[in-house]
């Protein structure tokens, strides 16, 4: 735009219809374009990155078999180590392929600027033919035929990279598929009729109703659950959030009127969306929040969903007190905890 000043007045010229095409800047050759040794170093680096991917994928598979996780052991040691090795193998395997592909493209493939005039998008035969030609040109540009080592490393990396995902999945197909385990938790009364006490998690201290003040939140598990032979599996299903509100704020149906005690309510800590731990409590609104996808449940209204993707309320644990004032579970949850599964029954 040109501005012309005359006698303290300003006149604006009209905007041009088109601006001149500035063209492309001069091409700056890379070191590898002029120095064959530099190109060879880049080729060796790409080969090394693909090799790292192959070795990482193999390490993940070996780690899965060499460090088995024993669910009966009740220890997280092997679980942590196995998860660490598999995770590192997966991460390095994918990272090796990605960084090798990027370095290959930036240092060995054609880097000349190309211009394609803008046109209307159309799917006619000529366009498809042009796309195929461009694809073939790109494949030719990789010059993979003259680099058999890179071609072999790429094939090996791509072939092995999915295995750390698939091997654990296939290896677990022969596991325990007894889904009835999802329909009961450690809150169910013992065979001898002993009551199950509510205890703090993880200190395993029994809780009295007098310990729970209005607005407080307790993370709860069945008392003496750490002594259970399947401690980790059972705890994953039985964790509970215990909250006390003003009894007048509770909106209880007649069926659930006896499930709480003086404003104290207990709900499953496992979100009904995808099973994340619901662990955030907003005292003013009486809302429980799942940090994973922000599903929000109303403690005063039978933990019904008020926001987010969860499709069901949190299962409620019916509670009572014994003669000494300790909180106990009346019975198990009224429905399976956690997200939906294929044979879920309410």
Automatic annotation (TrEMBL):
* Cellular component terms per the entry's GO annotation: plasma membrane
The answer to whether keyword Transmembrane helix applies is yes
Q: Tell me which InterPro entries the record gives.
A: QcrA_N (IPR045603), Rieske_2Fe-2S (IPR017941), Rieske_2Fe-2S_sf (IPR036922), Rieske_Fe-S_prot (IPR014349)
Span-the-membrane segments of this chain are 45-67, 79-104
Q: State if Metal-binding is listed as a keyword.
A: yes
Residue ranges for the region (Disordered) are 1-37
Show where the Rieske domain sits. 237-328
Q: How does it sit in the membrane?
A: Multi-pass membrane protein
Main localization category:
membrane
> What Gene Ontology terms describe what this protein does at the molecular function level?
2 iron, 2 sulfur cluster binding; metal ion binding; monooxygenase activity; oxidoreductase activity, acting on paired donors, with incorporation or reduction of molecular oxygen
Composition-biased stretches, type Basic and acidic residues, lie in: 1-18
Sorted UniProt keywords: 2Fe-2S, Cell membrane, Disulfide bond, Electron transport, Iron, Iron-sulfur, Membrane, Metal-binding, Oxidoreductase, Respiratory chain, Transmembrane, Transmembrane helix, Transport
Q: Which domain of life is it from?
A: Bacteria
Instruction: State where the protein is found.
Output: Cell membrane
Q: What does this protein do?
A: Iron-sulfur subunit of the cytochrome bc1 complex, an essential component of the respiratory electron transport chain required for ATP synthesis. The bc1 complex catalyzes the oxidation of menaquinol and the reduction of cytochrome c in the respiratory chain. The bc1 complex operates through a Q-cycle mechanism that couples electron transfer to generation of the proton gradient that drives ATP synthesis.
| PANTHER family noted in UniProt | CYTOCHROME B-C1 COMPLEX SUBUNIT RIESKE, MITOCHONDRIAL
Q: Report the sequence similarity comment from the record.
A: Belongs to the Rieske iron-sulfur protein family.
Q: What is this protein called?
A: Cytochrome bc1 complex Rieske iron-sulfur subunit
Q: Which organism is it from?
A: Occultella aeris
What gene, per UniProt, encodes this protein? aioB
């Amino acid at each position: 735009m040109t501005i012309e000043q005359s006698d303290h007045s300003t006149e604006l010229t009209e905007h041009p219809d088109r601006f001149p095409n500035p063209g492309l800047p001069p091409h700056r050759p890379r070191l590898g374009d002029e120095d064959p040794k530099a190109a060879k170093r880049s080729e060796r680096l790409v080969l090394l990155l693909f090799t790292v991917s192959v070795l990482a994928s193999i390490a993940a598979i070996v780690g899965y078999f060499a460090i088995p996780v024993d669910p009966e052991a009740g220890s997280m040691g092997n679980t942590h180590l196995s998860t660490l090795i598999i995770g590192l193998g997966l991460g390095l395997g994918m990272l090796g392929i990605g960084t090798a592909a990027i370095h290959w493209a930036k240092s060995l493939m054609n880097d000349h600027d190309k211009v394609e005039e803008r046109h209307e998008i159309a799917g006619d035969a000529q366009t498809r033919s042009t796309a195929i030609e461009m694809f073939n040109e790109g494949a030719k540009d990789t010059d993979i035929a003259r680099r058999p080592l890179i071609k072999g490393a790429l094939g090996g990396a791509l072939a092995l990279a999915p295995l750390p995902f698939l091997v654990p999945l296939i290896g677990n197909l022969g596991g325990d598929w007894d889904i009835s385990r999802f329909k009961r938790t450690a809150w169910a009364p013992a065979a001898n009729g002993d009551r199950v006490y509510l205890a703090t998690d993880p200190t395993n201290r029994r809780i009295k109703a007098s310990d729970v003040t209005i607005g407080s939140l307790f993370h709860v598990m069945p008392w003496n659950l750490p002594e259970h032979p399947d401690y980790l599996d059972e705890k994953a299903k039985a964790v509970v959030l215990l909250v006390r509100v003003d009894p007048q704020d509770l909106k209880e149906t007649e069926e659930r009127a006896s499930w709480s005690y003086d404003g104290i309510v207990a709900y499953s800590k496992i979100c009904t969306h995808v099973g994340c731990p619901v662990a955030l409590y907003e005292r003013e609104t009486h809302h429980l929040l799942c940090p994973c996808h922000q599903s929000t449940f109303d403690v005063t209204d039978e933990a019904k969903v008020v926001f987010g993707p969860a499709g069901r309320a949190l299962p409620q644990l019916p509670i009572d007190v014994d003669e000494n004032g300790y909180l106990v579970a009346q019975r198990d949850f009224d429905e399976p905890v956690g997200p939906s599964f294929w044979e879920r029954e309410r």
